[in-house]
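The instructor's notes for this session suggest beginning with a concrete chain rather than abstract definitions. Hand out the sequence below and ask the class to guess, before any prediction is shown, which regions might be ordered.
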Amino acid sequence: LRVLQEKSFSRLGGTEQIKVDVRLISATNRDLVAAIEDGSFRSDLYYRLNVVSIQLPPLRERIDDVPLLAAHFINKYNVEFNKKFDRVDRKAMDFMMDYHWPGNVRELENVIERAIVIDQGPQVKVNHLPFCNIEAPPTEEPQSLQEVEKIHIEKMLQRNDWNIAKTARLLSIDRSTLHKKIKKFGLERQQ
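After discussion, reveal the predicted structure:
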């Protein structure tokens, strides 16, 4: 905190103050004012960080950004993985425009990266979308949100050969959260 406030620091064991010009950019999906009130976030840190605040609505509230962001991520990962994807096909884009995007832009980026990593292109298709299981037969009885979450997590774990870090990244959750959900749902790796 002192570095942010005083714009200087001293090396460990040193006495000389070193001046720095620092701009810190941070992001969160939490309501920090509420977190301060309930004691889970330090108010002194908040007031030192909160110089300029930009409120960005979640992706689900600006769904028209999905095609532009998808195109950006296609270009980014084409370069990174030396691929030649040119677009998201119409059917996949329809699914993407109807999707709720709980993981926000990070989830969209992971979806595009996944498609480019696992295929040669030239288009992102419905079968690349982890939230889209078009082979599943329609169910007669409605499922609870917990059942849907359990099934989705289990399928993602299987697709990623139970690689916890990769699955957590694709689900846009922490590894510790994924471990808790695996335990909660009693999921086990099938041999």
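Then share the key points. Residues 2-49 form one domain. The chain has a mean pLDDT of 86.
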